[in-house]
Design a protein that fits this description.
The complex is a heterodimer. Chain A has seven helices and no strands. Chain A is mostly helical. Chain A has one domain. The longest helix of chain A has 29 residues. In chain A, about 45% of the residues are buried. By secondary structure, chain B is mainly α. Chain B has a domain of about 210 residues. Chain B has 20 helices and two strands. Chain B has a two-stranded antiparallel sheet. The two termini of chain B are about 40 Å apart. The chains are: A mainly alpha, B mainly alpha.
């Protein structure tokens, strides 16, 4: 499989998984899909590393699979289970309708290709994934779903970086991954505290601090 | 030991002491002592570097230029002041109704020094990737400080802080990635580079469209962390819910770090011939920040939120300086704001601790209850508001005159009006607290003893700002490039 072909199919898989996340309400499925998306990204990175004969890229890919494909979703799944949250029905618009909205949005991005001067066609899937992540963050109620939205957004940026002919220095990639790891753990802890203090984890209900 | 590495032992020792579970009272004293040592060591190592050129040697991705040196010194000074003050703050907190358990204090002293290291990384980074990692690390490491009180309000503030800043900074990473991609399309850096100095040196070869896109995303990222309008939502919450020493560090140094990052990327955009994108995005956002902060200041009922909005106002002024491209305006304003705002947060923190409320309408007669410290607080607030003879006045004057020279009269008008409005709001609200008869409960407070450091630290900081405002030392003048 050629490098371009590999990147294209990898990008397609991740965007489709992202779209799928938009359309569902079950928290467990969301987390599993996020894990699959990250694992796909990580495996694609490993494959790219092999094709380009860059051992460092293989290491980054393995780390992505381990941290974002396995650790983060499992950690959040355990959190979801002990917090007893199963569904996130979203704010005002129901997820199935959001799904069609997101699909239309992605199609428009592909057709109109905004910022042509700065973003080549190969960068569009990552922009799409970034926007899908934003959408999850805006439209969900639960603290856990917000974390997933942030992680999807971050996957979009990662997809952009590995789409370049040269990937970022490994120190930076690993540093970013460590920040994400620490961020997920911290946010998960905070979700627990929110549940304990407010007896729910609906972040739209956090509105004591105003003005 | 290299200059960058020499910054590490001090904070690491404090974190280690906290990990070893040294008890609260001893821990806070040891930490203040180590931090004072760190301050002296940093001054010896970094003061001479204030004269370094911008192409000073780079050590594993961290630069030693004059800009970084200035902010290393300022950050160290702010954190030292906060730590020295924290000794008596935590002592008094231990006597309050809900004394913090020693684990809370241990966590403060574990995370605060690591947070300091992350701030050093941001201001010294020559590598955009390291700068990003440092910036995200500052959020994660300061979140436990914001959550110090373990209350519902502090939890809400912490959640907002972590989520909003992480998402913002994620956009900043996208900007970083776009610049990295741009560098691969230039001839000289085909392997790709994240080094600011390398990118600046070859700026003319970078594709302009990509530089503009990257700038906008970087502005969103670091602008969120700086609290630029409309990305400021988290700032008043986090700064007001944190305990006083942490508020002082957040306001006095963390905001500066984000602004230094903004300065560096604006500099890069200008080097690439994209002045226009800086003028059209950063400048309006900065001016809007000043206006919004002044309006919010008018209707504050909570002392610490009031101070947080005043920080936001100052961020707007500094960001305006960055948008105008005046380093000395930015640097002077940053130094003065840090000195005065830290003094204000520390003084106010102790007064609020004694009176047991943060509500402006419940605070009365501070002047009669605590004359010395209240006078100092009022002076500090006037200094923060940019009144002569304090240094902020000169800095703001400088920024306004640069804007006027550039023919940007809308900036001058909006800034001057907002500054006046903010001054009125701050003056009215602080006088409301200072004057009148103190409530019954406060009478007992007057007799309680307080440590000398409670007055000494803020007084020294204020004196610094006064010196800057009245007799700018020649060496400092040279460092900020002369006051034209």
């Amino acid at each position: 499989m050629g490098e371009l072909h590999l990147f294209e199919s990898g990008a397609a898989v991740t965007v489709i998984l992202g779209l799928w996340i938009i359309g569902i309400t079950r928290v467990q499925t969301t987390l599993a899909l996020y894990g699959a998306q990250s694992a796909a990204l990580g495996l694609m990175t490993v494959h790219l590393g092999v094709l380009r004969a860059e051992p460092l890229l293989v290491i980054v890919g393995v780390a992505v699979v381990a941290v974002k494909g396995l650790f983060a979703p499992v950690y959040l799944l355990i959190a979801a289970k002990s917090l007893g949250c199963r569904r996130d029905d979203g704010v005002s618009i129901s997820p199935p309708i959001q799904f069609f909205g997101a699909l239309t949005g992605l199609a428009l991005i592909l057709l109109l290709h905004p910022l042509r001067a700065a973003l080549p066609e190969s960068a569009l899937p990552s922009v799409g994934l970034l926007l899908l992540g934003m959408m999850v963050m805006i439209t969900r109620r639960l603290a856990l779903s917000q974390i997933v939205g942030f992680l999807m957004l971050e996957n979009g940026i990662f997809l952009y970086t590995i789409g370049q002919p040269h990937t970022m220095p490994m120190v930076v990639e690993i540093g970013v991954l460590m920040d994400v790891l620490a961020g997920v753990m911290l946010a998960g802890l905070l979700a627990f505290k929110i549940n304990k203090t407010f007896e729910h984890i609906d972040v739209t209900e956090l509105k004591e601090l105003r003005g | 030991m290299t200059p960058v590495l020499s910054l590490l032992p001090g904070p690491l020792i404090i974190a280690a002491l906290a990990l070893l579970a040294v008890r609260g009272r001893i821990l806070s004293r040891l930490a203040a002592l180590v931090m004072a040592g760190q301050c002296v060591a940093a001054a010896i190592e970094w003061f001479p570097r204030l004269g370094n050129p911008m192409d000073a040697p780079i050590e594993r991705g961290f630069g030693t230029d004059s800009h970084g040196a200035l902010f290393v010194l300022l950050t160290t000074l702010v954190v030292t002041a906060a730590f020295v003050h924290a000794v008596s703050f935590f002592d008094r907190e231990a006597q309050s109704e809900h004394p913090p358990v020693s684990r809370q204090i241990g966590q403060f002293y574990f995370f605060a020094p690591l947070f300091l290291i992350a701030m050093y990384a941001v201001v010294l980074a020559d590598n955009l990737g390291y700068m990003w990692i440092g910036m995200e690390a500052t959020t994660l490491l300061s979140a436990p400080l914001v959550y110090f009180h373990r209350s519902a309000r502090s939890l809400e503030a912490t959640w907002k802080y972590v989520i909003i800043c992480s998402v913002g900074i994620a956009f900043g990473f996208f900007g970083t990635a776009v610049l990295f991609a741009a560098s691969q399309q230039s001839g000289a850096l085909a392997q790709g580079s994240l080094s600011l100095s390398a990118l600046t040196a070859h700026a003319s070869q970078l594709p302009p469209g990509m530089v503009r896109l990257a700038f906008v995303f970087l502005l969103l990222g670091y602008g969120t962390k700086a609290g630029l309008f409309p990305l400021h939502n988290w700032l008043p919450d986090a700064h007001s819910e944190a305990p006083a020493p942490a508020s002082a560090i957040l306001s006095g140094s963390l905001l500066n770090c984000a602004l230094v990052a903004l300065w560096r990327i604006s500099d890069l955009a200008r080097a690439a011939g994209q002045d226009l994108v800086v003028r059209e995005t950063l400048l309006p956002m900065a001016v809007a920040t000043v206006i919004a902060a002044a309006l919010f200041l008018l209707r504050q009922k909570d002392v610490k939120r009031m101070l947080a909005y005043s920080s936001m106002e100052n961020v707007g002024i500094m960001a305006t300086a960055i948008g105008l491209g005046t380093w000395n305006g930015f640097a002077l304003q940053a130094i003065n704001h840090s000195l005065c705002k830290v003094a204000v947060f520390l003084l106010a923190g102790n007064l609020l601790q004694q009176f047991g409320t943060k509500n402006i309408h419940e605070l009365r007669g501070l002047l009669r209850a605590q004359p010395g410290r209240t006078m100092l607080l009022l002076l500090a607030i006037t200094a923060v508001a940019g009144t002569p003879p304090f240094g902020s006045f000169l800095a703001e004057w400088r920024i306004l005159s640069v804007a006027a020279d550039g023919g940007l009269f809308w900036v001058v008008a909006a800034l001057a009006a907002s500054l006046a409005l903010a001054f009125i709001a701050l003056a009215m609200q602080s006088l409301e607290m200072a004057l009148g008869a103190p409530p019954e409960a406060a009478e007992t407070c007057t007799r309680t003893k307080f440590a000398l450091s409670l007055v000494l630290v803020p007084a020294v900081l204020l004196l610094g700002s006064l010196i800057l405002g009245t007799m700018l030392p020649a060496s400092l003048l040279a460092l900020v490039g002369g006051l034209r």
